[in-house]
Amino acid sequence: EVQLVESGGGLIQPGGSLRLSCAASGFTFSSYNMNWVRQVPGKGLEWLSYIRHRGGPGSIHYADSVKGRFTISRDDGANSMFLQMNNLRAEDTAVYFCVREKYGSGNYWEYFDSWGQGTLVTVSS
Amino acid sequence: DIQMTQSPSTLSASVGDRVTITCRASQTISDWLAWYQQKPGKAPKVLIYKASILENGVPSRFSGSGSGTDFTLTISSLQPDDFATYYCQQYINYSRTFGQGTKVEIK
Q: Which of A115, A28, A35 is nearest to A79 (CA)?
């Protein structure tokens, strides 16, 4: 069974930093492209960042709203993905989801076929 | 960035009703469109991909259509388990933008 478990959320002051982790199991993590998506409570979904499997050119992308402040990374040996979030703002308050892309259906970009349960980040003084 | 616009934002319906949600892209996305269902406190779950292909395990009362810029999600006979929020998403480029969501409520 595919499992994605996020951790690292919590209450942080504006300007602070936080590192989210996503532990993956039940599939060959190194073969999959992964993403972070967030959702402000009661609002819609916002794609944040993408990291390709096995690296290479064009292997990382960010939404404009987080570019320069957030850094995505992965450790295939530990079946884990990370999101380093710096210079956090009140508008970054949201539930952050770890998301797996569909593998092998033929398109370069894919839809999302598995989601974690999310971790809540609250940015407030 | 490609903008995705859903309508309506909220929909009130009864069990057994036929329900249609529309999604419009700001530029052509061919058929690179997915639909997700989200229930309160839960992660989204994919229902349909490539505009009209049902994900494994999704009931056949769900269907999708469209290509280019205009898409629809139809629930042929609304069931109690279907009251939720639905999102469309384009995946023609790396910025996988979502629609703002359509909440299906009990009438």
A: A28
